[in-house]
Structure to design on (550 residues):
């Protein structure tokens, strides 16, 4: 792809804008609570769009349109499952989680909440959850940086390793000093940019193709299976795709937005803004891929995931194309900054402050947080040097892993008074282990030529979050019931949260 | 690409009913639900 000077300038303007936001946020960041949670002062719009954009990543701009372009309407199940999961998360988790994390010793990270909610003096809950966050998010960050570098490499003909450093430098430029507020404000702007890009492209394409009826006719003439949601669908396949929505309840970089929201009164507004943004963006991504089938019918794309990029190049003038390409960078950056901050908070709050330096002052904590962001970013860059590294495959486990390990623990901790720390520990371990083991047992062993040399132990295909989530729920209930009930202090705190929520 | 012509008639294609249903009903319902709760949840700040 040749890059036009106007396109390049538009992308630079966008990146400078992100830097300015970072500088403004840095002026409002005085301590660790500000740095990792923005001092709990996010408004509804920023909380909603930053949760959405940091969740969706490059998948919304590249993965979903690519899947729609390759297979048609049979791919919408995943979008439906994610939208339902996100709604349930906003409806049932956001408010109680916001209240409980504040009541429970003003917890500022997910591991912090687990320890305080269950009064876990052993620190096992904190350490295990912080290690899981640190490991998965470092790999996740690395994989996202690789995605951004590949985009810069293909767009600007930039050397891959240089692109890796440039991408990380841009994200660090606002995240290092500005922390959570910078990440949330930039994610808000990035969310708007992504939204506009996703809405404009399919509208222009359908117009160019002669209207909706003509577009569908062209696609149907190529292959009618593109028009049918049930094409190639199996019951287990549909359940697996819908089950992606279960992952929302346990994603630390998403639920941390609930903790950072200014007040419970903002949550219904944030839910409405967030769901409208998400559903319309998903429709945009779906129709970009779908209309791409007709638009590129005579010159099919080699890589389906480039359908958004190709559209931005062929349909728009270079200035608009630049901002549309910046939309993809925005999607990637908004996820990386959030993951960097959650990883940094795990290192700072859950290791440094909780274990090594309990009496660390606010400035010291904040600087440890900043240095942690830098260290994790550098580790992620070096991991990304080998873009084909198998270690980056761990990302595949991350969504299901967090969903199954943390999701059931968070849900039951908010709604079940009898749950105790042993139940939480059992649920976390069973959820995480089930996801990894199920995934390994479902995958056939291949030789170097890609031929199957040993069939999968589990003879059917079911997304690992389904067994992981269910077994974690069962483990929490069984282990909590066979061990000692929580202390009176914990039960009183649970009741006080319920009382507050009745008024909210 | 031209549509198929059978007996001089142009074949019109459309999305299946199930596709329209799964595409529109669940996701748009979520926007409607969140709009409804915007007005029904008017509690105080806690």
């Amino acid at each position: 792809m040749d890059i036009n000077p106007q396109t390049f300038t538009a992308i630079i303007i966008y990146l400078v804008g992100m830097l300015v936001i970072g500088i403004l946020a840095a002026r409002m960041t005085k301590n660790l609570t500000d740095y990792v949670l923005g001092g709990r002062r996010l408004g509804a719009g920023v909380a909603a769009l930053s949760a959405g954009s940091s969740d969706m990543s490059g998948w919304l701009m590249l993965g979903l349109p690519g899947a729609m372009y390759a297979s048609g309407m049979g791919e919408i199940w995943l979008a439906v499952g994610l939208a339902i999961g996100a709604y349930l998360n906003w409806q049932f988790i956001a408010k109680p989680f916001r209240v409980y994390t504040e009541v429970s010793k003003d917890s500022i990270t997910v591991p912090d909440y687990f320890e305080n909610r269950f009064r876990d003096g052993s620190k096992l809950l904190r350490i295990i959850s912080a290690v899981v966050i640190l490991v998965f998010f470092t790999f996740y960050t690395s994989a996202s940086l690789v995605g951004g570098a590949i985009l810069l490499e293909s767009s600007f003909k930039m050397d891959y390793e240089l692109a890796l450093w440039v991408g990380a430098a841009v994200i660090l430029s606002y995240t290092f000093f500005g922390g959570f507020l910078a990440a949330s404000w930039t994610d808000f702007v990035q969310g708007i940019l992504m939204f506009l890009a996703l809405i404009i492209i399919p509208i222009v394409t359908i117009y160019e193709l002669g209207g909706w009826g003509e577009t569908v006719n062209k696609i149907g003439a190529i292959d009618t299976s593109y028009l049918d949601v049930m094409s190639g669908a199996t019951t287990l396949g549909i359940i697996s795709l819908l089950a992606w929505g279960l992952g929302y309840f346990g994603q630390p970089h998403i639920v941390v937005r609930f903790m950072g929201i200014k007040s419970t009164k903002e949550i219904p507004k944030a839910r409405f803004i967030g769901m409208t943004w998400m559903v319309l963006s998903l429709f945009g991504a779906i129709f970009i891929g779908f209309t791409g089938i007709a638009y590129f019918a005579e010159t099919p794309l080699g890589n389906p995931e480039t359908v958004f990029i190709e559209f931005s190049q062929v349909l728009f003038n270079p200035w608009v194309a630049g901002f549309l390409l910046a939309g993809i960078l925005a999607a990637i950056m908004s996820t990386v900054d959030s993951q960097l901050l959650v990883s940094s908070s795990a290192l700072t709050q859950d290791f440094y402050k909780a274990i090594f330096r309990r009496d660390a002052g606010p400035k010291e904590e904040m600087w440890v947080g900043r240095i942690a962001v830098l260290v994790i970013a550098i580790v992620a860059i070096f991991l990304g040097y080998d873009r084909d590294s198998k270690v980056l495959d761990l990302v595949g486990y991350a969504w299901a892993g967090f969903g199954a390990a943390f999701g059931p623990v968070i849900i039951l901790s908010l709604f079940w008074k009898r749950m105790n720390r042993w139940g939480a520990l059992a649920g976390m371990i069973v959820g995480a282990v089930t996801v990894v083991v199920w995934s390994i047992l479902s995958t056939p062993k291949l030789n170097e030529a890609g031929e199957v040399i040993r069939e999968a132990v589990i003879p059917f295909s079911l997304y690992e979050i389904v067994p992981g989530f269910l077994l974690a729920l069962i483990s929490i209930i069984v282990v909590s019931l066979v061990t000692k009930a929580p202390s009176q202090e914990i039960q009183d705190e649970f009741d006080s949260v319920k009382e507050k929520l009745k008024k909210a | 690409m031209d549509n198929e012509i059978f007996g001089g008639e142009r074949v019109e294609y459309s999305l299946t009913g199930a596709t329209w249903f799964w595409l529109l009903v669940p996701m748009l319902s979520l926007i409607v639900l969140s709009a409804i709760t915007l007005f029904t949840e008017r509690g105080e700040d806690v």
